[in-house]
């Protein structure tokens, strides 16, 4: 085989047709993650994304349900397919700053989200929680948001443990449409 500069190598397999050759590897195609990688894992602007999202179309912001005091959207950088966030419209940082009405609607939307995800993706369990404050792991510490992560038997494997990588089998737009369409009116 010859290299690009003309150097000849012996006992080296040709790369011609490599993509068509069956092997033991499975490919993980996660094209939506390129935005996260290219942005350096930082928001594109200083504006709070949870304050900006409601001014966008549901499709652009990945919103699946709008309530009176809070709304639900897909996590742009999900742990699993269907990873949702419930956010109050009001810009508050911590749970104790939320009003009684906001807390009640966040709870109600969380319950509805679980029902919708169970119906659309057969989720077998959930991780639900809030990281409040940067020190506690909040990626966006300035705006309260609750995570709803659907889980399935054997959804954790060596990728997140060893390689720090999560395989997501569906595109965000597909998941948003399915979840939004399944949400009760």
TrEMBL record:
Motif (Histidine triad motif) on chain: 143-147
The enzyme's E.C. designation: 2.7.7.53
HIT domain boundaries: 49-158
Any Pfam family matching the protein: HIT
Record-annotated active site: 145 (tele-amp-histidine intermediate)
Membrane-spanning parts: none
Keywords associated with the record: Nucleotide-binding, Nucleotidyltransferase, Transferase
GO MF terms, alphabetically ordered: ATP:ADP adenylyltransferase activity; nucleotide binding
Residues engaged in binding substrate: 75, 147
Name of the protein in its database record: ATP adenylyltransferase
Provenance organism: Conyzicola lurida
Lineage start: Bacteria, Bacillati, Actinomycetota, Actinomycetes, Micrococcales
């Amino acid at each position: 085989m010859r290299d690009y500069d003309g150097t000849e190598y012996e006992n080296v397999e040709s790369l011609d047709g490599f993509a068509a050759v069956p092997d033991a590897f499975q490919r993980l195609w996660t094209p939506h993650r390129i935005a996260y990688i290219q942005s350096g894992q930082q928001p594109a602007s200083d504006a709070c994304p949870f304050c900006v999202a409601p001014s966008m179309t549901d499709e652009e912001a990945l919103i699946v349900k709008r309530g009176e005091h809070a709304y639900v959207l897909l996590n742009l950088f999900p742990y699993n397919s269907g990873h949702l966030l419930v956010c109050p419209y009001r810009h508050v940082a911590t749970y104790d700053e939320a009003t009684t009405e906001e807390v009640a609607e966040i709870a109600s939307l969380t319950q509805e989200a679980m029902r919708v995800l169970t119906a659309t993706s057969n989720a077998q369990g959930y991780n639900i929680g809030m990281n409040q404050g940067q020190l506690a792991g909040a990626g966006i510490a300035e705006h309260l948001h609750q995570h709803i992560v659907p889980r399935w038997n054997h959804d954790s494997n060596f990728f997140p443990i060893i390689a720090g990588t999560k395989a997501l089998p569906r595109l965000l737009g597909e998941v948003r449409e399915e979840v939004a369409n399944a949400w009760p009116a």
